[in-house]
Amino acid sequence: MRILFLFMAKLKSYYGLCNLKGDCNMKNKELLDFDDLHKGKKVLDPTVKQLYQVIENSYDGIYITDGDANTIFLNKSYEKITGMKRSDMIGKNMRYLVENKYLSQSGTLLVLESGKNATVEQKFKTGKTVLVSSSPIFNDKGEITMVVTNVRNVTELYELKEQMKKNMELTQKYYSQLEGMRQQLLRFSDIIAKDEKMLNTLEMARKVAKVDTTVLLLGETGVGKEKIGKYIHKNSSRSNRSFIKIDCGSIPCNLIESELFGYEKGAFTGANKGGKIGLFELAEGGSIFLDEVGELPLDMQVKLLRVLQEGEIKKVGGTDTIKIDVRVIAATNRNLKEMVEKKTFREDLYYRLNVVPITILPLRERKDDVEPLISHFMCVFNKKYDFNKIITTAAVDSLKKYKWPGNVRELKNIIERVIIMSSGDKILRSDLPIKEVWDSDVSGSNMWNENLTLKEAVENLEESIIESSLEKHGNVRDAAKELGINASTLVRKRKRYKNKHVLQK
Prior knowledge:
The protein folds into 3 domains: about 1-155, PAS domain (Beta-Lactamase), CATH 3.30.450; about 210-360, Rossmann fold, CATH 3.40.50.300; about 365-505, Helicase, Ruva Protein, domain 3 (Orthogonal Bundle), CATH 1.10.8. The chain has 22 helices and 16 strands. The protein has helices at about 1-10, 35-40, 45-55, 75-80, 85-90, 95-100, 105-115, 155-185, 195-210, 225-235, 255-260, 280, 300-310, 335-340, 345-355, 370-385, 395-400, 405-420, 435-445, 455-475, 475-485, 485-505; strands at about 60-65, 70-75, 120-125, 130-140, 145-155, 215-220, 245, 260-265, 275, 285-290, 310-315, 320-325, 325-330, 355-360, 390, 425. The protein has a 5-stranded antiparallel β-sheet with strand order 2-1-5-4-3, sandwiched between helices. Strands 7-10-13-6-14 form a 5-stranded parallel β-sheet. The chain has a two-stranded antiparallel ribbon with strand order 8-9. Strand 1 (about 60-65) and strand 2 form a beta hairpin. Helix 21 packs across helix 22. It is elongated, with a radius of gyration of 41 Å. It starts with a helix and ends with a helix. The model is unreliable at about 15-35 and about 440-450 (pLDDT under 50).
């Protein structure tokens, strides 16, 4: 500190003090020549000279005033950062500089008023913006003899902040557009989808809907193949015409042809006198949905192939062909490729149907859809049965752990069942069907398997009991009372189990 005082004293010896107007009574009639000082033309004490070199070459801007706010020193970094010249600042009082708009405000003046450190943002007439931190230097009497200010350039920081703001606004814009596209994607259907994989499937369906081609929907029973089929139809140019569904597996083999293509009067014993229009004719201009197309017998596969290739049908008992304009959307839960290899499905028909295949993943592979589907079915069945029930978080968590072999259809059935059968306004985990869900919940949480130690299995059971009690009572105090432990112990145990799951992930 003594060296700093000495350095400042040497500098002040070159000029007198300034008045509040910024006028200086210079002894040498000119300001200190810093270039001469830097080059060693001015004689200074070696220690003082070293200190000068340290300050002068500091990366931060350094600005020093005396105890009356007169500027006595600033380094070259200050000039570079602020764009102000030494000749504009040296010898001038800080009050004068503020009043004459050299800078917006002064950390030095705040320090002289409060006697404490001050940090402020300064804007200079050069357009630069800086952050300054000013600190007082006291003498032995507790008087402020100097104020030292460190200056850092924040112009780039503000520019970066502004750019980040623009980027965030742009990101938000893109997010809104994306969300709008997703909403548009779902506008014409009652498909509930949140999982990214399912949204990608819907996007594929939307694209293919615009092209009048055959589509093959693949997936397990209950995944929603018919829903996707309707979605394709509703988003196509045929949306104002019929959508006819045919369950190929439920029609007796001897009736399939007459159901699909119709028959002429007197075609067979028991036929209507006036004949019958087939489902393909009824679907004229629209779409026909062939569900479980893999169940068609081989002889009907040949006739379906002719429909796809020639765009025409022939009624049972008829001799004339009838031109039709129908889009075919086929669906199956079977592996048609394996059936082709086993000669139970025609190869030529397979390739004719498989123009655009769309695979709909099972519910167990799109877990993010489970919760929105639960919410949807809760609303549907509450309205249907005039209930106002809610489902607890613990119950939802159990449903999310279940494997759903029956997919969306099974989930729908379970929600309908628990809404009807549950006694209270809340659907608890204990209200869920034991066979379908609880067993899955136990295995999903690894309550017991051969890879667990006894301690791990006991911990899993303890966690399950704690969560069940919390769900039942809705608060820690009553749950702890029921379990015979204090509340802090319950909270601690629950936190430990949750942290364990986080680490496992």
